Amino acid sequence: MNKKIITFDTTLRDGAQSPGISFSLKDKLSIIDLLDSFGIDYIEAGNPGGVPKDAELFRIIKEKNYRSRICAFSPTCKVNSLPENDLNLKAVLDTGVNHVAIVGKASMLHVNEVLKTDGEENLRMIRDTVNYLVSKNKSVIFDAEHFFDGFYDNREYALLVLKEAFDAGADTVVLCDTNGGSLPSEIAEAVRTVKLRYPEKNIGIHCHNDMGMAAAATLRAVEEGALHVQATFLGFGERCGNADFTTLLPVMMYKMNCRLNCAEQMKSLTIMSRRLSDIANVIFDEKRPFVGENAFTHKAGMHADAVNKDPRTSELISPELVGNRRNFAISELSGKSSLIYKVKEIEPNIERNSPVIDKLLSGIKTHENEGYYYENADASLELLILEALERRKKYFLLRSFKLFLSEPESHSPATATIKIEVDGAEEMTASEGNGPVNAMDKVLRKALLHFYPVIEEMRLIDYKVRVLDSDAKTEAIVRVLIESGDDSSTWNTVGVSTDIIEASWRALLDSVEYFLYKRGYPGLENSI
After folding, report:
1. What is the mean pLDDT of the chain?
2. Among candidates 492, 463, 461, which has minimal Cα distance to 480?
3. Which residues of 382-524 form beta strands (DSSP E)?
4. What is the rounded CA–CA span in Å between residue 430 and residue 116?
């Protein structure tokens, strides 16, 4: 295809309208830095006339230099009013930015029922607003809101809206599927019609995901000639969200051979999207195409064997192209190929017929029969492999441990005491916590801090409990999954027992041991 695509990110404006998302001023500045370093062409920083926080943001970024083009957003002037008297447009001009995105109605339903005016007045509002901004030396992108609804309801009027914007001086006109209710085939037909009417004009696409088709609809628009693509990262946006750049960019680059200014940064796509997820304080979806951990994770033995022979058998692109990595989930469904791949990460010279492999595979299946689950417990699995290779180390000896619980109605904290020994030196301490697991976590790290100060950098991120056989009632086996992390990575551990305290303790011990192992501590003498 070899088309040059212009990327327009609206995470800070449309994405901020996503339920559960609330960006602080600091968040917005951090996101702009991420988008700018990634190489996005346009960053729609917000609506300075409608959101006080956005007005302050524009005052700050006025003093900064970005490679990306910073864009301000505003509606057209109001019904029966002039743009020079419009406060929203004044706020846009006060930002000093060179690029402005203006939204106007392209559907007669919205003209009549929302604006409460007629088609001629709507066209006048669009024409006067665009013309006014162009007269102020602004580059204008016109967003034709509800274009596809308007196109299939009153085709000629929707096309006339585009003509008014172009004739008034808009550089680009963007066709918006604002309700997210258009099929990709309907998007394609409409874009094809617009390109035939305006073959030399810059046409953009903006799709919402209300039917789960925003990415597909956007890509169909690109195939039909749209060269300006509006989307958000991680699909943030109103209702079900917008088209997602983490999906669109790899597809356009690696499957459609489009040219992108951010091409050189594509290998940072995974880490960049995860950082943005952290800023937004949302849980990262590991099933997300290209950047999720599951995107290149293989579980079935046949698939793992095929990928080991040739990755093209089950991977549409190399994970390294988007900064991701290949992974093999280990379970009772896994064959030797999956396990060998995991072992080779630790011991590259392991042979397929090594007794270690058979022993590990048998042990994993036995553990899973007991309730263990290693697909989401990468750190516990690695420790298991180290043990089979006779490389697992101890970092302390547990001499005593006690846990004291108050009456449930008292709301008093739990208390844990522990005595550990490291190379002949003992440490005994106590700690209170908000419940038994928190008390155990705190007292263990408090005791280890004397010997391993780096333990301060470790934190517990998530704690999950699952009852495996509810029919057994209070004697049921429980599985505890713990997610831990430091400033650079996260890891997961698992513990299983009929006693939730014991299961939690096992998962906590694995987490601490894995952290110290990754930090390169040698372990106790004769600990293997």
Report:
1. 91
2. 463
3. 397-404, 414-422, 425-433, 459-467, 478-485, 490-497
4. 70
CA proximity to 206, closest of 193, 196, 191: 191
Please tell me the total number of residues recorded for the chain in this structure: 528
Residue closest to 360 by CA, chosen among 327, 328, 382, 393: 382
What would the pLDDT profile of 163-219 be if each residue is shown by its tens digit?
A: 999 999 999 999 999 999 999 999 999 999 999 999 999 999 999 999 999 999 999
Q: Name the amino acid, one letter, at 473.
A: K
- Rounded-to-integer distance, Cα 185 and Cα 166, Å: 25
| Least confident range of 150-159, 181-190, 214-223, 381-390 | 381-390
How many Cβ atoms are within 10 Å of 402's Cβ, its own excluded? Answer: 11
Question: Scanning the structure block, which residue is given the tokens 């009013």?
Answer: 81
Let me know: does 269 contact 247? Beta carbons within 8 Å.
no
Kindly report which listed range (33-47, 130-144, 378-392) carries the lowest average pLDDT score: 378-392
Model pLDDT for residues 408-443, shown as the tens digit of each residue: 665 668 999 999 999 999 999 999 988 888 899 999
Contact 232, 241 (CB under 8 A): yes
Q: What is the pLDDT of residue 313?
A: 80
Its pTM stands at 0.77
3-state secondary structure of 423: coil
- Percentage helix, strand, coil, to 5, in the chain? 45, 20, 35
Helices (H), 391-483: 436-449
DSSP for 283-346 reads ---TTSTTTSGGGGEE-SHHHHHHHHH-GGGT-SS-GGGGT---EE--STT--HHHHHHHHHTT
What pairing do the DSSP bridges indicate for beta strands 490-497 and 172-177?
unpaired
Instruction: Answer positive or negative: Cα dihedral of 48, 54, 55, 61.
Output: negative
